[in-house]
Amino acid sequence: MIPRTFRSTRFVTCVATVLMAVGAAHSFADDEPQRFARFQAGDVVGYGVVDGDQISLIDGDLFGSWTKTGRTFAVEEVTLLAPTQPTQIIALAGNYRSHLAGEQTVTTVVTTTTTTTTDLKTGETKSTTTSRTEQRSSTEVPERFRIPQPFFKSPSCLVPHEANIVIPKDAETVHFEAEMVLVIGKTAKDVSKEDALEYVFGVTCGNDVSARVWQQNDVQWWRAKGHDTFGPCGPYIVRGLDYDNLLGRLRLNGKVMQEEDTSHLIHDVRTLISFISRHVTLHPGDLIFTGTSGQTAAIQPGDVVEVEYEGVGVLRNHVVAEQ
Known about the structure:
CATH class of the largest domain: Alpha Beta
Structural class: mainly beta
CATH architecture of the largest domain: Alpha-Beta Complex
Helix content: 10-25%
Number of domains: 3
Distance between the termini: 41 Å
Shape: elongated
Radius of gyration: 24 Å
Order of helices and strands: HEEEEEEHEEEEEEEEEHHEEEHEEE
Largest sheet: 12 strands, mixed
Number of helices: 5
Number of strands: 21
CATH superfamily of the largest domain: Fumarylacetoacetase-like, C-terminal domain
């Protein structure tokens, strides 16, 4: 892929021009990006509109109608919380070709054919063996991934920006997975692809932390993907972006380890919402991790993991060992 420059500065500039006045109702059809945060400041816990280094507390339902209260807080003086309190967290397996290619254990297929012939005059039997070797293309999508492959993460795995990722004592190898996360804005059931974006409130950054040994050996991924602290998410919810065209990257201790654009998703945002809502009713605040790209690697206590998506912000978490 060809890297491109993040457009965060341009995003922050345009947010200030679209903040709606106190007392105005808000819909899902805003023309310009808006940034929101769920936060705590003393005994105040709520949602706010983020404008530069300030958060304006809102009153009402973030996913319905709300107004600004007139109370503001400095971002640096508040504690950012997990972006929502979801009823369910759904994640996608194998939604980037680059990730599927990185996880393939067999890249070469050898087909051996043995032909046996018998000479009718002499009765002598002769065998001839031929082999054909095929390289599996890294751009080929295996058949089972040609439809979305969702799985569930436990809501208890959710942790916010600057929280710790705790490595369990018996987990052995634990990997990072940078992902764009969809935030559902209204109840979705049997949604068409054409209408799917109407149900997306916005996006945030996520890290689908994964215990690889558990993932490989367990029948289900419930602890490999859903263990407590295995779902960092944040720092903000941003709406009004082109969700199918955002550059994402992950840095481990400052080194870029993953970098790919969401335009490379095998199943785009519309497809995911439509497919999942056929089987599971989605509710406001529910989260969908859209899949990770490229190759992942192990994280260790002492590491700092940063996930950044264009126009959204940087999700930063520290890795510690279970005590």
